[in-house]
Amino acid sequence: MKVIAGIQKALQEGRSALTESESKTLLRQYGIPTVEEAACTTPEEALLEARRLGYPVVLKGLGARLTHKTERGLVKLHLTSDEEVRHAVHEIEKAAGSDLEGYLVQPMLSGRREFVAGLFCDPLFGPVVMFGLGGVFTEVLRDVVFRVAPFDEAEAALMLDEVRSSALLGPFRGEQPAWREAIIQTLTGLSQLAEDCLDVTEVDINPLLIGPDGRVTAVDALIVLGKRPAPPAAAEPVDPQDLAGFFYPKSIAFIGASGTIGKWGHMLFTNVAAGGYEHDFYLVNSKGGVIAGRPVFKSVTDIPGPVDLAVVTVPAAGVSAVLPEIAAKGIRRVVLISSGFSETGEKGRQLERDLVAQARKLGLLILGPNTMGLCNPHHHFYCMGMHVRPGAGEMSLVAQSGNLGTQLLAFAKSQGIGIRAFCGSGNEGMITIEDFLDAFEKDDMTRTVVLYLESIKNGRRFVETARRVGRRKPVVVLKGGRTDAGNRAAASHTGALASNIAVFQASCRQAGIVPADHPTDLLDLSAAFSALPLPKGSRIGIATLGGGWGVVATDLCVENGLVIPNLTDEIIAGIDKILPPYWSRTNPIDLVAEFDPLIPQKIIEELLKWEDCDAVLHLGMLGRVSFFRSVADSAILTDPNYSEEGLKGSIALARQSEADFSRFAVRMMETYQKPVLGVALLNDEDSRSIVEVEGSPYKGVAFQTPERAVRVLAKMCTYSRWLSREKQRGTGRSEA
Fold it and tell me: 493 with 386, same domain?
């Protein structure tokens, strides 16, 4: 912590803020450009300084308690003479009263572009720097962006481009572009100030004025002092190996087992048994007896032989009584399904705190409480209330809403998207989202990490962990509670503090997290990241079976920040050899209803060869099986001359053609290391987003709508750019 004389003096005097003059003195120490000014103690001195600076000038009241000067009428602008200064002094004296300690004289600067920069302390993320449109529009338009401190010049430069009014930083009505370097220095200076001066809780620079020559000047500034919000209590990190053990149990005890269908104590063990679990499991209930033809042990300690995992469904009030028995049996890992803890209010939170303390003393590690369960398809282990059993894959999913998580698993199964592991994290009494990130980072079988979050408990650890993981593999996040109403619902559901969504989103951008806007985005993105190479840029080549579809896809690409490059003469000449003379000669390339299955393949390879193309989007090349099937059904119903067997043969040929196309797309991705993805012509119950190709790290990918395909491409491009910046910073080697 840096000791700043002005701060020390203010604190000794019991002040909660620096004066404007003191604030700017401190800001200048961090390279922040401030207006030239003079602090004066008497009206006579203020008059002399006004003459020295040259009219017109600004006169402000100065005092430790004068933090909202404009509202109190203590700022006088455009003073052009000694007489106007004397009159302004008189008005300021009347308005400020005994709070007046002096005067601040500044030259009257011109400039039509006003921005704002500042610093505040978020309860979850700590110091956060803000930049955006300033002046009278700050609170009305709320065109501001954020970054969690500390950050570097490259991150600050991104903030300038993210504000909606960024065009004002360029040439503006005859005025020069803003000096970007000065704004970047202002933002990084605030970041460093936040690290150095722990007694500073807020900084407000408004306006940050852009002059006609582009010069950047902090005209007004306020620095607030105080005690920063205490950081969240740091949960004890969980060793990734300890967490991995939950997903590979060699024997399980279901404590609270029930013979009643529909109860948790019944749904869990029947799902495990039906899912093909290949190891022993035992049923425990204090009543004993027999359930599903299996003996029921009255206590877990009665089970013969070792047990790896305890799955507990007894009521919340009875959990503390079974924990000592679990420990006595030598079991270390507990999946606590039981609800009635922190999600119910303060009484439940205290019950949960007591339970966690008891577990730590006993050497137990609890997943939950209030979890929906977990699964590992690679271990044939499906321990969830909902009997959904997706296939094995490379996407690891953690959801703070177990219901949403299991619904996503059902969708993944229907679309052929494989799962590496799933867990409903519940209340995260002992194992947090950050612990899962740590574990999946080290898991070589996980290619994509997918999270549904309603809240986080330690913002700093979340950002740092997600950024480290993101350098190796994509982290895709859907945040629940993006609105005020959603925040209230999320807090009610999890019993944890929901963070400000704007700060959360800013932290995600810094950490390279890929944001999902809808639940289906989670699986679309995970499918694409697990199946496709990353694009090196944002230039997209489009091949379409219909012209209108290509127009729609082009609009979507442009709206999502992608580029549709014009075809070069060389590319046109190559495609002239493939398509009839009347083809469009533009990107997107309309295949003019050519149904030869080899033509799309040739067009796609031409695009992939093209240096100005980073990814290929094809529309209508897949999904023709559904088309032929519907045509065949109609023919059979209306024309008895058609053979049902013959038509089925045509459908089989179409299916084979689509399989060949998927294999071709995968070979092309292996050769050119560019993503190829599509949109199906039609979809039916047999349609899948993912097509496996044996022996390849890549897969065929086709979505149901252009919107979904384009969203995926755009976010893959954003992640790819983030990885490139991380490499340039030298902060880590990407292995994604």
Answer: yes
d(CA 378, CA 373): 16
User: How confident is residue 51, by pLDDT bands cut at 50, 70 and 90?
Assistant: very high
Q: Which domain holds residue 562?
A: 532-723
Give the count of domains, the chain. 3
Answer whether 422's CB lies under 8 Å from 396's CB.
Answer: yes
Q: Are residues 506 and 557 in the same domain?
A: no
User: CATH code at 381?
Assistant: 3.40.50.261
What span, in angstroms and rounded, lies between the C-alpha atoms of 34 and 64?
Answer: 19
Whether the CA torsion 695, 697, 700, 704 is positive or negative: it is positive
What type of residue is 411? F
Main-chain dihedrals φ then ψ at residue 396, nearest 5 degrees: -100, 130
Is pLDDT at 495 greater than 60 in this prediction?
A: no
Pair (510, 610) in one structural domain = no
* Region of poorest pLDDT, from 4-13, 206-215, 461-470: 4-13
Cβ contacts of residue 293 below 8 Å, gap of 6+? none
Question: What tokens appear for 407 in the block?
Answer: 């619904």
Domain end marker among 509, 530, 551: 530
Whether 66 maps to a domain, the answer reads no
Instruction: Say yes or no: 214 and 317 in one domain.
Output: no
**Strand 126-133 relative to strand 113-122: parallel, antiparallel, unpaired?**
antiparallel
Residues 6+ apart with CB under 8 A from 30: 189, 190, 192, 193
In a domain, 224, yes or no: yes
86-98 burial: b if 16+ Cβ within 10 Å, else e: eebbeebeeebee
* Whole-number Å distance between alpha carbons of 37 and 20: 10
Taking the C-alpha atoms of residue 269 and residue 283, their distance in angstroms, rounded to an integer, is 8
- Distance from C-alpha of 43 to C-alpha of 317, rounded to nearest angstrom: 73
- 541 and 420 housed in the same domain: no
Q: Is residue 68 part of a domain?
A: no
d(CA 208, CA 219): 6
pLDDT tens-digit readout, 659-718: 888 999 999 999 999 999 999 876 655 667 788 888 899 999 999 899 999 999 999 999
Within a domain: residue 581? yes
